[in-house]
Amino acid sequence: MAEKVIQIEIKRQSGPDAPATWEKFEIPWKPGMNVISVMREIAANPVNANGQDTTPIVYDSNCLEEICGSCAMVINGKARMACSALVDKLEQPIRVQPLTKFPVVRDLSVDRSVLFENLKAVKAWVPVDGTYDLGSGPRVFPQQQEAAYPLSNCISCCCCMEVCPQFNDATGFVGAATIAQVKLFNSHPTGKVLKEERLRALAGDGGVQECGFAQNCVQVCPKQLPLTEAISDVTRDVTLQVAKDFLRA
Amino acid sequence: MATAARPDASPSSSPAAHGSVARGVEPLRAGKGNSFLLRKLHSLSGIVPIGAFLIEHLLSNFEALKGPLAYANQVKFLNSLPLVRVLEVCLIFLPLAYHALYGVYIALRGKANVIYYPWSGNWMYMMQRWTGYIAFVYIIQHVIRQRFMGVSLPEHPGAAFHKVQMELSNPWMLAVYVIAMIAVCWHFSYGIWLFAAKWGITPGETARRRFGYVCAVLGVVLAVMGLASIYAFVGPNYKNAPDDVMPAQTQLSMPASRGASLSEGYLARI
Questions:
Q1: What ipTM describes this predicted complex?
Q2: To 5 degrees, how large is the angle CA A165–CA A171–CA A177?
Q3: Residues of chain A contacting residue B20, judged by C-beta atoms under 8 Å apart
Q4: Total-model pTM
């Protein structure tokens, strides 16, 4: 029986300012492969389809079970997690390229620190640090937990931002992930102490108002976060906050 | 986490101030700028007053189905509103100019990606921008040619039907009006849906879907009414309407009821 071969084309770039080129590989098929395991095979034997020696592919990945958010890349034209992109379900040649809206570090590894900056800008945390024991927090009822849980599933993969037509250099839009985290932490009985600050932050340039409701975010989200619902709710809260601030000024 | 040159967005300085090249999309400018207000104003102005005016305009146009005199009376009624020129500037021209110019600014900054992500919401996102562009170009020529060129309708409401009929007698212009009518009704009805979604009126997925049906019905009704009005001008019912069905009067010199009866007499003679 002839050996089955996986054809894969990878967009490579040796550094942030280096030119990008496509490199083709042919890798022996094994059962249950995903895009990450294909690239591990390349690393084990870094030879491209022309038989030339090359370097292993640089990429981010960690958990390999779609829970860490590291391995988001554009596979066959769609942003998704490489670990859950099963080779047997992909059209070949598989074309893999880095996320297009984030600066390339090298090959498929991109700099997604903009999300971290955004989460810091909206204080996406529960403030409990202090110099003495604050005691136990307020009780969170199961109903509240169930409402919050879907939003807590965000893995910071940035797919929602990659597919958003409004997330670009011109708008500097904050993106769906950060808005969803604002809803999450504003609904937390202790986290909501920062609610007004978060809402005011989101009324800044690049805030919720830049959303064009193309709804790509909610389509692409690997963790099925209710992103459009969060954007709708948070935009209402931001609008009310701005109105209150205006009248109390 | 790997980083590629973008420095921490420290609250005191912009990335450019670091002297290094900023890469990628800029982080949120928390609490800075006034684009929130401008954007919300853009969104609101599309509903009131512009959307309200659109409905008024389409309802007024619908009077054309009753013939030149009914249409003239509608034009005359609108021009008899108190402070009508102030209303025209404050509730139509200024909001419309703002909505149009800021809308183009918004559209130019979006990067549509329907080729890669051909999903319905994404299509509607793109269509909202394209129908906006169509409306932008159409309304500029429509206002110039129908409001500010040719016979002035506020002074001569009786000439309204003839003026529009002459415009639509050009098949190219007719095509422009038909396309623009559909585009504008699309833009408005999806705009209502977007307004409800983005202002947090319909956060729920099911609520948005249901409201989508409502907006779709509204859009179709408005477009059909608009197209029917166009048909009134080009169809066989009122061919070769007279230049002016209220020739001998001005608003100031004659009460409306007498003007109407005189005109009917005039129409009966022709």
A1: 0.93
A2: 65
A3: none
A4: 0.90
